[in-house]
Specification:
401 residues, alpha/beta, Rossmann fold, 2 domains, 34% helix, globular, Coenzyme A biosynthesis bifunctional protein CoaBC, EC 4.1.1.36
Amino acid sequence: MLDGRRVLLIISGGIAAYKSLELIRRLKDRGCAVRCILTKGGANFVTPLAVAALSGDKVYQDTFDLKDESEMGHIRLSREADLVVVAPATANLLAKMAAGIADDLASTALLATDKPVLVAPAMNTLMWEHPATRANMATLEGRGVARIGPNAGDLACGEVGGGRMAEPAEILAAIETSLSDGPLKGVRAVVTSGPTHEAIDPVRYIANHSSGKQGHAIAAALARLGAEVTLVSGPVHIPDPAGVRVVRVDSAVEMLNGVRAALPADVVVCAAAVADWTVANRATEKRKKKVGAPPPVIELAPNPDILMTVSKAEGGLRPRLVVGFAAETEALLDNARDKLARKGCDWIVANDVSEGSGTFGGDANLVHVIDADGIDSWPRMGKDAVAARLAERIANVLRGL
């Protein structure tokens, strides 16, 4: 997939820069040409000699190297690659990218490029969670910059939390997805995944057992076929799929807003287990248990119907293909057929989530794909395999096969 491809790798200042050496090796093993820009901060963690030895090319560091400016120039450097990768991407460099600052070779090349950009953030947890960093990242994603990670785990500073740079294998997978010429190249896809949390008070919420494994697998499978994927995910405890833009939400209303913001799209797959109801009398303070007092009365109100909203969208926002999921505990096929008719979507993927099925939270699934032509029942298989088969089916339909 990467044979003959060219990647410009920008290595900025952070301890995670050591992972960039492994990434270079893996890219070269796959026949990819790698040219590197090493920032002043990055050179404090990895040496130009090590980067040059692994990449087989000169390492570029200085904007005002007159020899390189005459022979290559930062413009050519930024545009001769098929993809620009920033790993690690520090909070400082993300801020520069968002603000359009060009005060060194890395930021100048990023401002001058006309190629896709993939960033792998790496920083302290509080830095990653700071509103400024989140706003900068949202700005960049809104401009089409792709992101992989960061992951949660032990950080070099001794703290534990989000901010750990994605592993080289994950970044490699994201690069392969970005450079894919698969059957869904040019297709925009939106996938919902995971549960929603409907707040009862600031401490408690209503939710379900969805792990998000199936929805995340579908997003990854579509990306592997070349689609530009936005994943709108409820609260889950699994890694982000490689090469996918992720929008994190909590409630059903937030999930609907996330989907709407991602439209127009060619295909929408609503795999999330969205709560049917929200709490109408949500308390602003924790509901306290009082001795002798009855339990509080929780009033429920219906949540917006995301699948129906997308299926019946007007003004050119109705996707070419809308796929819903039916998670049932009884009368699986009858309920799924009814849902297909009521929602107005094109397909329903029906699966049994009754107790003992192992579907919620498990690694396997048994599904039936229902459309206007009938029922296509699949054997029980891993959720990754279900996702791959569903993505191929989607590709065939969108290509008119």
